[in-house]
């Protein structure tokens, strides 16, 4: 399968999940400004017209988009990994947390803060409206190792999003000690540590390219 990604973007969650599952994949880096696939110079929009990562092409040639859907596909494709949850309330809880991370944290809180073109008023509003989501998460994680009773694709997504606090100074994790402990603990997990280390190096190379092109 082929995973189209950009360094340290939300697509890193799928990399974490694939590493956790011990799955083989081709990792195809997408240059965000130009939408060029760096591996072969092709236009990424011929694969995903919206131009957003992650995008996954399965071994059967099916193209999947949207982070939560791709993560659930990986969990179902590799059930031995334990990344998913059985049908019933446990599966619903998994969906709940994937939606929470995707809407309340990723899109609601972090996206405005990471958008360099967003007005300061927009960033201030996002903080005012959505910091309470971290309060909720901090309370939930008290005494818990993971979002469910085991490491799942929801954790792969959450640790990816929390990792963005490195680039969002207004969010200081010390204010949410349970979230901070969760993040620090998961960063030590081999699949997470490997993904972050590899994508950080690619991110530095990406920034160097942008600087050279400016």
TrEMBL record:
Domain of life: Bacteria
Matching InterPro entries: Glutathione-S-Trfase_C-like (IPR010987), Glutathione-S-Trfase_C_sf (IPR036282), Glutathione_S-Trfase (IPR040079), Glutathione_S-Trfase_N (IPR004045), GST_C (IPR004046), Thioredoxin-like_sf (IPR036249)
Cited Gene3D superfamilies: 1.20.1050.10, Glutaredoxin
Occurrences of domain GST N-terminal (ranges): 1-82
Name under which the protein is recorded: Hypothetical glutathione S-transferase like protein
Pfam short name (any one): GST_N_2
The GST C-terminal domain, residue ranges: 87-214
Coiled-coil positions: none
PANTHER family (UniProt xref): GLUTATHIONE S-TRANSFERASE GSTA, GLUTATHIONE S-TRANSFERASE-RELATED
CDD domains per UniProt: GST_C_Beta, GST_N_Beta
